[in-house]
Amino acid sequence: MVNIQGTFNGDTTYPNLFCFVIAPPASGKGVLKYAKAMGLKRQTILHESIPSIDIFIPANISTATIYQHLHTNGGVGILFESEADTMKYTFKQEWGGYDDLLRKAFHFEEATLERKDRSIKIEHPRLSVILSGTPNQIQGIIPDVDNGLFSRFIFYICKSESEWDREIDMAGFSLDGYFGDLSIFFAIIISNSMWAVQFSFTNRQKEIFHSRFEKWHNEFLVCYNDENIGIIKRLGNITFRIAMILTAIRFGYQSNPPATPIVYCNDIDFETAFLLAETYKQHALFIYVTMKDKPTNNKPIDKFVLQFYEMLPPDSDFTKSDAIEIGKLINIAERTVGKYLKNLVKAAYIEQPRYGLYRKTKIEGVEYEVLNPHELGE
């Protein structure tokens, strides 16, 4: 989707995503090859008008070559690797440290490569990344959660029970055939989506978006150190991009797409983007906790903190003494209650209308308003 774009936080944003699927060996993540097969069909159609374009870029590539590849493609490409160790090995080589390019490409920042024999400048790299691997391969790509790449990726963790599948089909339904047919239909949809140029939320969607992310932002501040708040902030950007993709696909389903300067997000696609983002948030936080070098510094403040918050009076002012009495009910020490109150105020979960009094902060519109598709139509 090289045409559609939107404006997020004042910056022009395209629908490119960085995705990392994590699962144990032999757990089924190999189905990603069918996604690539669908993309290859789209590439075949593009070749008819742009013979030089090659959408897919291998991970075992030198820094100079990936710059040249993107430059030849007009700045666009998909870095696709079903074995994350391939990229891990490449990053360890002197010729393959292109992680800086990935960080810039996520925000479509100008990337320049200077060599004795050449100079390559890509003004707005629009690079997507799809990786899959096992849990112990993550840190080969992203050394720690403080590395800027961590918050740029969507993580999806799969776990399957280890048992023999007696339903294995050895002679019937073919996924290759199914996705081969689907890839033709998909290529047509993407071609039609090229008519969609400018994407935007409606004003109502913008308000809901900000309310929900304000809630997630505050939750993160309560439970984790604020130096890694980029996880939530970049998830906002990612959610916007997911909604853009869904909108472009819906637009591409039309046989005669209308001529319109702006394509507004459908409410169903808006809610779908948030449901996906909620899942990716939970998976990212799980990996965040397991990867953190010093978990004592960034683990949740206390396993009782949110329980303590929920037990505070919802609609009336309370004092520190009131909070201490509530803390006693779940065996929280008086000193710890003081720390919780301080952190909850800092995170805007509670406020102080005047000295000695506290109350829960009212945040309008933070509850999910999942819309009924049957009321909105297909």
Explain the overall architecture.
It is a single chain. The protein is of the alpha/beta class and 378 residues long. The chain folds into two domains: 8-159 and 178-295, Rossmann fold (3-Layer(aba) Sandwich); 302-360, Orthogonal Bundle (Arc Repressor Mutant, subunit A), CATH 1.10.10. 46% of the residues lie in helices and 13% in strands. The protein is built from 14 helices and 13 strands. The chain has helices spanning 32-49, 63-72, 84-91, 99-106, 138-141, 175-193, 203-223, 230-252, 267-291, 295-298, 305-311, 320-329, 334-346, 373-376; strands spanning 5-8, 11-13, 18-22, 56-57, 76-81, 111-114, 119-122, 126-133, 153-157, 198-200, 263-264, 350-351, 359-360. The strands form four sheets. The protein has a five-stranded parallel beta sheet with strand order 4-5-8-3-9, with helices on both faces. A hairpin with a 7-residue loop joins strand 12 (350-351) and strand 13. It is globular. The protein starts with a strand and ends with a helix.
Biggest sheet statistics: 5 strands, parallel
- Which strand order spans the largest sheet, edge to edge or round the barrel? 4-5-8-3-9
| Regions with little confidence, pLDDT below 50 for 5+ residues | 294-303, 363-378
Order of helices and strands: EEEHEHEHHEEEHEHEHHEHHHHHEEH
N-C termini distance? 23 Å
Number of distinct beta strands: 13
Mean pLDDT: 84
What portion of residues is helical?
40-55%
Derived structural class: alpha/beta
- The gyration radius over C-alpha positions equals 24 Å
CATH architecture of the largest domain: 3-Layer(aba) Sandwich
The CATH first-level class of the largest domain comes to Alpha Beta
Strand content: 5-15%
Quickly count the domains.
Answer: 2
- The backbone outline, from C-alpha atoms, is globular
The CATH topology of the largest domain is: Rossmann fold
